[in-house]
Amino acid sequence: MIGDFIKDNYGSRKGLLQYHWDGILTRVGVYQHIAPSARKVQRVVFVCQGNICRSALAEVVFKKHSHIDAMSLGLDTTAGKPANPRLMKYAYDKAAIDLSEHRTTRFEDYEVQPCDLFVCMEIRQIRELKKRGVTNSSVLLGSFGDKPQARINDPYSANDRYMEKTVEDIVYHTVELAKSLER
Asked: What pTM does this model have?
């Protein structure tokens, strides 16, 4: 019973711990959400580990809801891979989002532009960008909207219910991000 709750809401026990750890870091001020002025953002860059689930979905959702250019990339991926088939199914079934054209982009194949806003799924991805020399504004996708969350866990190996929840969370927070940049 408890195990099913954890899998359905956090993906795994490790996901539960990471989710709450990022929440603690946010509450004590290690990460502070500071959204840049919309005038300064010319491109939104969604970031996750593999660029086959979370960032891929966020990119497509954002492009449907904003006139600002967007792309996605992975910090640890191989170039040219398609989106995760399970995520593709849930994205299409839950939100009519087609990810069939998506192909992964590696961070190493990407050129940082001065007016890029990096939108990450986890605090550790913001830290990794800084280690790689990125000085642009970086924010957490889950920070946008009335239901903030400090982390959107990777659904790659999670059960179907968590995959579905991840799609719902990413769609919600990405639409809220698009709204905030339109102001």
From this structure: 0.90
Query: From CA 15, how far away is CA 89, in angstroms rounded?
Result: 22
pLDDT digits 0-9 by tens, 33-44 = 666 677 789 999
pLDDT tens digit sequence for 155-177: 998 899 999 999 999 999 999 99
Furthest CA-CA distance within the chain = 49
Q: How many CB atoms lie within 10 A of CB 122?
A: 24
Residue 158 corresponds to which amino acid? A
Q: At what angle do helices 13-27 and 2-10 cross, to 10 degrees?
A: 60
Can you name the residues that pair with 73 across neighbouring β-strands? 47
CB proximity list for 124: less than 8 A, separation 6 or greater: none
Residue 141 pLDDT: 96
108 Cβ contact list (under 8 Å, min separation 6): none
Q: pLDDT tens digits, residue range 105-137?
A: 999 999 999 999 999 999 999 999 999 999 999
How far from 135 is each of 10, 149, 161, CA to CA, in Å? 30, 24, 36
Asked if residue 83 has pLDDT above 90, the reply is yes
CA nearest neighbour of 22 among 168, 153, 131? 153
Backbone φ and ψ for 47, nearest 5 degrees, come out as -130, 135
Neighbour tally for 157: CB within 10 Å: 11
